[in-house]
Write a structure and sequence with these properties.
Length: about 210
């Protein structure tokens, strides 16, 4: 009798285990590869991540700031239900992306593919946070107390690293994304990021009812 009851419970138990495993599934592997850096490059990257300026993004106009934050917040709402955390995240993305000379929408697409907007995501390779930064970067260009799960630190490193790869590849985004993910020469990852960027996060400024800007 007990055996029969156990058998009846088994499918439900397996389903529960499956759901738990799904919840802790590692993020899509961010896996930047360690490469020795020239002293000048290392110094430049160290300077890039060490500046602790407040992430207060500057937009072309106050209306564009309101429009961009409102629209991106709407798109991100299901993934980040807390509005204040969502706005802080978006402001930091905009600030760090622009600071590194990147399109904020590209960075949002990369985060979607890398971590699914999970702050504490960890890949099988050990990459951490929203932008899946490998810990070796701390020793290479940062400070030992840098926490890659901290919002601004993670985005500062991620944007700086992507900018570094873009410079290495002379602006070739396809190859830079491949380096970022540790999959150089493979089309799958760059195509996923581009698709997320163009279909989920593209931004075309629209005229407001107050008139053209």
């Amino acid at each position: 009798m007990q055996l029969m009851q156990h058998c009846r419970k088994a499918p439900a138990l397996l389903m529960l285990v499956g759901l738990v495993l799904a919840c802790i599934k590692p993020a899509l592997a961010g896996n930047q590869r360690y490469e020795p850096l020239a002293a000048s490059v290392q110094a430049a990257l160290q300077a890039a991540v060490s500046d602790r300026a407040s992430p207060d993004p500057e937009f072309p106009s106050i209306m564009e700031k309101i429009d961009w934050l409102t629209e991106m917040s709407r798109r991100l709402e299901k993934r980040m239900p807390d509005r204040s955390a969502r706005i802080e995240f978006l402001k930091t993305v905009y600030y760090e992306a622009k600071r590194a000379g990147l399109d904020p929408q590209l960075v949002l697409g990369l985060i979607q593919v890398e971590s699914g907007f999970k702050k504490y995501a960890v890949s099988q390779a050990g990459a951490r946070g929203y932008m899946q930064v490998m810990p070796f970067w701390i020793k290479l260009i940062g400070q030992k107390d840098n926490n890659l799960f901290h919002l601004r630190i993670n985005l500062r490193y991620g944007c700086t690293i992507l900018r570094h790869y873009l410079d290495i590849e002379k602006g070739d985004l396809y190859r830079a994304l491949g380096r970022y993910n540790g999959s150089l020469g493979q089309a799958d990852y760059p195509n996923q990021v581009r698709t997320a960027w163009e279909k989920q996060w593209s931004w075309l400024q629209q005229p407001t009812l107050l008139g053209q800007r």
